Amino acid sequence: MDKVTVSVPGKLMLLGEHAVVYNHPCLVTAVNQRMRVTVDILDSQEFQFEAPDVKVVGYKKALSELGKGDIPKGAQFVEIAVKNITEKHQLKSGLRITTSSEFSSEFGFGSSSASTVCVVKALSELLDLKLNSKEIFDISYKTVLDIQGKGSGFDVAAAVFGGTLYFITGGKVIEPLKISSLPLIVGYSGIKADTVTLINNVKDRFANDSDRLQEIYSQIEAIVEKAKSFVIAGDWGHVGSLMNENQKLLKELGVSIDKLDNMISGAIEAGAYGAKLSGAGGGDCMVALSPEDKIQSVERAIAKAGGQVLSVKTNAEGVRVE
Residue range 269-293: average pLDDT? Predict the structure, then answer.
């Protein structure tokens, strides 16, 4: 085999963001917009990378230089993923890696983790490493930490395992929930947010009140634990009201913004069971759960508040060879 194409889903956080960075559980679902990575074996001892979506074109370096020098932001996750694998499994030839994505990196669907998981899975196939899902998770998560210094790994888990997951920081628990659907309405704020900055902002905001911060994280954990059984039962009314509780706590953390607040309150006024921001906050997406007969009015309300309703299906399949 001298060529392989792999795809992974994007992700959306249902409940538990921010707390999940600090050893608390979350619920995350994979979405059907996918990222694809094609890896070709080269004759030369060279690493080549093309990712037009993130404006990386014609990037190349010697295999021996992997991880060294100035790496463009859009190439970091892929290059370090290759480096982490080649430290354990020798590459006999060069690689050309090309990525393309059905989702914009602006949506906060987890594009960095998605590209990392794609590359690890593709190299597992090409080098016949026979890595299982947990091994793919571990290498990909290490790559994310190498670059960001922090992160919970829930987006990596969603890319690897797909479906809807109950997840605890670092993959201590990765439990797929047996559900057939998760009818989320997704609205994009039009504002790009940076996860690491937002995590640090929360830390700074509560620098003198760490007790309250721990309390908030414990309350979020209690919400996630309750919601887990309601999600499995398909009891969207109860899940929605827990989303509203979670959103109040995220506002207290200081990670919601007016635009998201307006989209969320618009959705609830239009009849949604519940709505909240999804992910780190500061922009990116919000999600709502709604009765079937209120979906269109909820979508209209999100659009009226200046949001872009995204057409995504949740509970999507995890990493796969195309």
Answer: 95
- State how far the Cα of 270 lies from the Cα of 163, in Å rounded to an integer: 28
Residue 108: which pLDDT band, with cuts at 50, 70 and 90? low
CA angle 166, 16, 73 (to 5 degrees): 95
Indicate the DSSP class of residue 290: -
**Residues with catalytic roles:** 155
* pTM, to two decimals: 0.93
The β-bridge partners of 286 are 187, 277
Q: Which two tokens stand for residue 151?
A: 């992160």
d(CA 216, CA 19): 8
pLDDT in tens, 167-183: 999 999 999 999 998 99
H runs (alpha helix) in 168-284: 195-205, 210-233, 236-253, 258-269
CA distances from 142 to 17, 97, 117, 137, 305 (A): 20, 20, 11, 8, 39
Which pLDDT score is estimated for 54?
A: 84
The CA-atom distances, in angstroms, between 11 and each of 36, 109, 160, 285 are: 15, 5, 11, 11
DSSP 6-47: EEEEEEEEEE-TTGGGGT-EEEEEEEEEEEEEEEEEESSSEE
